[in-house]
Amino acid sequence: MKIVIERFDRKKHYKQDYDIKKEDIINKTLLYALLFIKQTKDATLNFTASCRSAICGAYAVRVNGHAVLACDTKMKNLLGTYDDPDILNIAPIANFRVISDLVVDLEPSVESLKKIHPAIAPKDEFSPKKGCVQTQAKFDKIVKEWDCILCGCCASECNKLSADNSDYMEPFVFVHAFRAAFDSRNKNDMLHTKASVMGGLWNCVHCQECIDRCPKGINAAENIASLRIKAIKKGLTSGVGPAHAKAFYTDLVDGSGRLNEVLLALRSEGAATITKTGLVITLWRSGKLNPLHIFGEKEIEGHKDLVKMIKAAQAANKE
Ligand code: SF4
Ligand code: SF4
Ligand code: FES
């Protein structure tokens, strides 16, 4: 079979093919396959790896466009996913600057991590003598996020980062912000929450791709949603993001139960909606938006029961 690797020699990007026998790698990991290429075919191929055990987070790559952790990916399963192909394409993870071949620059992510202050400040009731303990239930709320190994797979898949990374941090940065903000031992959850808002918390486009590719099963999108709820509860309600969330709620509970695209835009962006007139006309012409809905819509069937369920969920959440 052929393994086609996207390479970068600091001057140009190019693809290089390597022919290998399936039997040499089939019972090994993807990391082994790449080491095999480096050791037997091309010593100039660059990539990073250290622990080989899905611990250090050093070696994520894209296979046929999707991020995987090479040391944690069995070739048998990988080839099975693609119906035993004769060609596999390997590339560096996306949304990072490529330094050399499959090696990417993680320094900007370190800077993002610093911004959200990933360490907690213990509450005043704790002391070296008393310790800094929490119940199992409270620990369970953040335990999953402790598994993050900063491999970058979630960031590689993130559609928001691909579209525009100027106002958004990597999904794993929000995972670490969540872990600190929701740690019951922390005396300053707002430090991490505010920094998350500043880092683009409301700009996530809910594509959920980050969840699919995390080798540790961490749900970055859910962490982002939880941080948003915390931000609103703590009074960080200014801006389009919180207004947009409130507009959804208004349609769902106080309105017809159906998302009213016309009012949603007006409620979210106010007067700035006027700048989107061209888009509104395009959506109207293609039948995706009805301007008459500005006067309201027919209540959906079962709306009253839906509202009851939402109120019950809210009450349970308060308990
Ligand atoms: S859900 Fe949000 S954080 Fe996750 S990949 Fe999509 S845009 Fe990025
Ligand atoms: S959240 Fe998952 S995919 Fe993202 S960096 Fe952490 S371990 Fe990797
Ligand atoms: S080599 Fe350490 S996580 Fe893969």
TrEMBL record:
GO biological process: respiratory electron transport chain; tricarboxylic acid cycle
Pfam families: Fer2_3, Fer4_8
UniProt-listed SUPFAM superfamilies: 2Fe-2S ferredoxin-like (SSF54292), alpha-helical ferredoxin (SSF46548)
Co-factor requirement: [2Fe-2S] cluster; [3Fe-4S] cluster; [4Fe-4S] cluster
Span of domain Succinate dehydogenase/fumarate reductase N-terminal: 3-108
Annotated InterPro entries: 2Fe-2S_ferredoxin-like_sf, 4Fe4S_Fe-S-bd, 4Fe4S_Fe_S_CS, Beta-grasp_dom_sf, Helical_ferredxn, SDH/FRD_Iron-Sulfur, Succ_DH/fum_Rdtase_Fe-S, Succ_DH/fum_Rdtase_N
Gene3D superfamilies cross-referenced by the UniProt entry: 3.10.20.30, Alpha-helical ferredoxin
Top-rank EC class of the record's enzyme: oxidoreductase
UniProt keyword annotations, A-Z: 2Fe-2S, 3Fe-4S, 4Fe-4S, Iron, Iron-sulfur, Metal-binding, Oxidoreductase, Tricarboxylic acid cycle
Listed EC numbers: 1.3.5.1
Residues of the 4Fe-4S ferredoxin-type domain: 147-218
GO molecular function, one term: metal ion binding
Protein family per UniProt: Belongs to the succinate dehydrogenase/fumarate reductase iron-sulfur protein family.
PANTHER family found in the cross-reference section: SUCCINATE DEHYDROGENASE [UBIQUINONE] IRON-SULFUR SUBUNIT, MITOCHONDRIAL, SUCCINATE DEHYDROGENASE IRON-SULFUR PROTEIN
Protein known as: succinate dehydrogenase
Name of encoding gene: sdhB
